C-alpha cells in the first residue's frame, strides 16, 4: 500500500497582549506546560514512523506579515482569532489514518488549539487529464 | 521536528526518551526572566515574563524525546530574546518618532549563555524582589511569580489568597519596579548587597508559608519550602550571600524540613513534637542542617536564625522528647527573645522552661508577661496555658483556657488536637 504525505497545521489562540489580561486566551503555567510537553513527547513517540522530522520551522516570535491588496499588516496577531503556530509533515496510508493521528495530537486538548490536516499531492495529480 | 540541533540521520536508532527534571519548565522560566530582566531592565519585567512564557510554549511543541537542542537553556534564551526584541520593535513602531534599535540588541542572540552568569542573574532578581520599599507579602508574590515560575492562580492556592488579590499585588509590585530611576534600572548584584537581611527574611517567610501547620494540600505547600531551600543554597554560593546568618537560615530550613512528613498522622492531622515518630525524621536533612549550623558558627554574628536553628537542632538530635536538652533550648529562646523580642518567643521559652523545671516555672514566666492585645486572639497562648495548668493539676483553669483556644484555633487539625486535650482534662477531673 502506498503512503501519502499530509500536512498538519497547528493553530492556537493568539498570545495575550499582556500577562494577566489573558481573558479568553490560553496561558498555561510553566508546570502545566511541562505536562503538555510530556503529552507531545508521548504522541510523537507513538507515531514516530508517521511523523516526519522538519528540516526547518517557523521563526518563533514574529517576523510575520500579512499582505492584502494594497496593505501589509504586522502579522496576523490582531485580526485573526487563531494563529498558525507550526506545521509537520506526516506520512500515512490514508486520510482516515492521518485524521486518527491528528485526533490524538495534544494540541486538540489545549483550549482554542486545533490541527488542520491537508493531503498533499504531487505535480502529476494536476497533469492528469480529467475523465481520462 | 527539530530544535536547535541537527536532525537525526534517517534510520538512526531513536535515543532513549528524554526525561526533563521535575519543575524544569518552572525553574527555566525563572532563569529566563532573570537573564532577560538584567539585560532589558527590571522595569520591563512583565515583558520578560511574556517572552519566557512564549519560549517555553515553543519548546512544548518543538522538543521531543528524540529531537531536542543540545543546550536547552541557550535555545530557550535565544527564542525568548527574539520574542522580546520583536515586542520592543512593535512598541517602537507605535511611537511617533521610532528610535533605531541599538546594534547591540541585534547581536544578543549570539551571546554566550553561561550557567555561572545565569546563577548570578537569578540571585540578582532575588535581591530585586526583596526591595525593602515593597511590603514583605508583595516581595514574596513577586519572587514566586518571576523566580519560581508559579502562575497567579498557583500562587493564590499556595498562599490561601484570592487570585484577584495576588494579581493586584503583582501589578503594584511591578509598578514599583517601573518607578526606579533610570540609573538604577539594572543594578549590579553587588549594589544590592545591603538588601541581604531583606532577602533572608523573604526566604524565611517563604519557607514558613510552606511549613505552616495543619493546612491541606501538603504537596503543593511543600514546594514553597523546596523553593526557599533552593534559593537559599544559591545565595550562599555567592560572595554576596556567603554570610553566617544565611548559613543559619539554611540550617533552620533543613532541620524543619527533616520533620515535614513526621508531623502528620495517617489522617493528615498534626502531631506534636512529643507524639511524632522520630524514626520518620529525615536523617539526611538533619545532617545537612547540622552541617550548615556548624558553618554558621564562624564569625561573631549571632542572628535570630542562629537561635532558631540551634533550637531546631536540639530537637532533631534528641533521642526522645523526654531526653531533650530543655535547658539548652530555654537558653536559645532567651537569646532569640533578646534579638527579636516577641511574646511568641517568650511563649515558646515558657514551654521549654516547663519541660526543664516544671509547669509552675513556665506558668510564672507567662504570668509575668505584659500581654499585648493582639495576643488575646491567639489560640496557642490559651492552648499553652491550658496545657501547663493541666500539668500543674489545676483542671478547671486548664479547661477554661483550652475551651477558649478551641474557639480561636484556625484549622481543623489544631481543633482536633485541642479537643483531645480537653477530653483528657474532663476524664482527669
Describe, in plain words, how this protein is organized in 3D:
The complex is a heterodimer of chains A (132) and B (429). Chain A has 132 residues and is α+β, with helices and mostly antiparallel strands. Chain A is built from three helices and six strands; from the N terminus they run E-H-E-E-E-E-H-E-H. In chain A, the strands form two sheets. A four-stranded antiparallel β-sheet of chain A has the order 2-5-1-6, covered by helices on one side. The longest helix of chain A is centred in the N-terminal third of the chain and has 17 residues, at 30-46. Chain A is flat, with a radius of gyration of 18 Å. Chain B is mainly alpha-helical and 429 residues long. Chain B has 19 helices and no strands. Chain B has helices spanning 24-40, 45-62, 72-93, 103-106, 115-129, 136-146, 152-159, 163-178, 196-211, 218-236, 244-257, 283-296, 304-317, 326-339, 343-357, 359-367, 379-391, 395-408, 412-428. The radius of gyration of chain B is 26 Å and the shape is elongated. The termini of chain B are far apart. Residues 1-15 and 100-110 of chain B have low confidence and may be disordered. At the A-B interface, helix 1 and strand 5 of A face helix 1, helix 2, helix 3, helix 7 and helix 8 of B.
- Helix tally of chain B equals 19
Low-pLDDT ranges of chain A: 16-24
Mean pLDDT of chain B, nearest integer? 85
Beta-strand content bin of chain B: under 5%
Beta percentage of chain A is 25-35%
Amino acid at each position: 500500500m502506498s503512503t501519502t504525505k499530509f500536512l498538519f497545521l497547528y493553530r492556537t489562540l493568539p498570545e495575550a497582549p499582556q500577562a494577566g489580561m489573558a481573558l479568553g486566551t490560553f496561558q498555561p503555567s510553566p508546570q502545566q506546560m511541562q505536562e503538555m510537553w510530556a503529552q507531545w513527547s508521548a504522541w510523537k513517540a507513538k507515531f514516530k514512523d508517521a511523523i516526519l522530522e522538519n528540516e526547518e520551522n517557523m521563526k518563533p516570535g514574529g517576523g510575520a506579515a500579512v499582505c492584502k491588496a494594497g496593505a501589509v499588516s504586522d502579522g496576523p496577531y490582531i485580526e485573526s482569532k487563531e494563529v498558525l503556530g507550526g506545521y509537520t509533515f506526516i506520512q500515512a496510508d490514508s486520510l482516515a489514518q492521518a485524521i486518527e493521528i491528528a485526533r490524538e495530537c495534544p494540541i486538540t486538548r489545549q483550549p482554542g488549539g486545533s490541527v488542520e490536516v491537508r493531503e498533499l499531492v504531487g505535480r502529476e495529480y494536476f497533469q492528469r487529464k480529467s475523465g481520462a | 521536528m527539530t530544535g536547535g540541533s541537527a536532525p537525526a540521520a534517517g534510520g538512526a536508532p531513536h535515543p532513549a526518551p528524554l526525561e526533563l527534571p521535575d519543575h524544569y519548565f518552572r525553574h527555566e522560566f525563572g532563569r529566563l526572566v532573570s537573564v532577560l530582566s538584567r539585560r532589558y531592565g527590571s522595569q520591563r519585567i512583565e515583558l520578560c515574563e511574556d517572552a519566557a512564557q512564549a519560549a517555553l510554549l515553543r519548546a512544548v511543541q518543538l522538543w521531543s524525546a528524540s529531537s531536542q537542542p543540545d543546550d536547552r537553556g541557550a535555545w530557550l534564551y535565544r527564542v525568548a530574546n527574539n520574542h522580546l526584541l520583536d515586542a520592543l520593535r512593535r512598541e517602537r513602531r507605535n511611537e511617533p518618532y521610532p528610535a533605531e534599535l541599538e546594534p547591540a540588541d541585534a547581536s544578543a542572540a549570539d551571546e554566550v549563555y553561561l550557567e555561572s552568569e545565569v546563577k548570578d542573574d537569578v540571585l540578582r532578581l532575588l535581591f530585586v524582589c526583596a526591595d525593602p520599599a515593597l511590603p514583605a507579602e508583595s516581595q514574596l508574590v513577586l519572587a514566586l511569580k518571576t523566580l519560581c515560575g508559579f502562575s497567579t492562580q498557583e500562587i493564590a492556592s499556595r498562599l490561601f489568597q484570592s487570585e484577584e488579590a495576588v494579581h493586584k499585588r503583582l501589578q503594584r509590585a511591578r509598578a514599583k519596579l517601573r518607578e526606579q530611576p533610570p540609573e538604577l534600572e539594572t543594578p549590579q548584584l553587588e549594589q544590592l548587597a545591603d538588601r541581604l537581611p531583606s532577602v533572608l527574611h523573604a526566604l524565611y517567610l517563604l519557607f514558613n508559608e510552606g511549613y505552616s501547620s495543619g493546612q491541606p494540600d501538603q504537596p503543593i505547600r511543600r514546594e514553597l519550602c523546596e523553593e526557599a531551600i533552593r534559593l537559599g543554597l544559591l545565595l550562599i554560593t555567592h560572595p554576596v550571600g556567603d554570610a553566617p546568618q544565611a548559613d543559619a537560615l539554611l540550617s533552620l530550613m533543613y532541620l524543619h524540613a527533616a520533620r515535614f512528613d513526621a508531623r502528620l498522622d495517617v489522617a493528615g492531622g498534626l502531631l506534636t513534637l512529643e507524639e511524632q515518630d522520630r524514626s520518620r525524621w529525615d536523617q539526611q536533612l538533619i545532617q545537612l542542617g547540622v552541617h550548615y549550623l556548624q558553618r554558621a558558627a564562624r564569625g561573631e554574628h549571632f542572628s535570630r536564625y542562629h537561635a532558631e536553628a540551634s533550637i531546631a537542632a536540639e530537637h532533631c538530635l534528641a533521642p526522645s522528647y523526654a531526653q531533650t536538652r530543655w535547658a539548652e533550648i530555654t537558653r536559645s529562646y532567651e537569646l532569640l527573645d533578646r534579638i527579636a523580642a516577641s511574646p511568641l518567643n517568650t511563649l515558646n521559652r515558657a514551654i521549654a522552661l516547663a519541660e526543664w523545671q516544671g509547669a509552675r516555672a513556665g506558668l510564672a514566666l507567662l504570668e509575668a508577661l505584659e500581654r499585648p492585645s493582639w495576643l488575646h486572639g491567639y489560640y496557642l497562648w490559651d492552648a499553652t496555658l491550658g496545657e501547663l495548668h493541666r500539668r500543674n493539676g489545676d483542671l478547671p483553669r486548664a479547661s477554661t483556657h483550652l475551651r477558649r483556644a478551641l474557639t480561636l484555633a484556625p484549622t481543623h487539625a489544631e481543633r482536633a488536637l485541642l479537643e483531645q486535650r480537653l477530653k483528657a482534662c474532663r476524664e482527669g477531673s
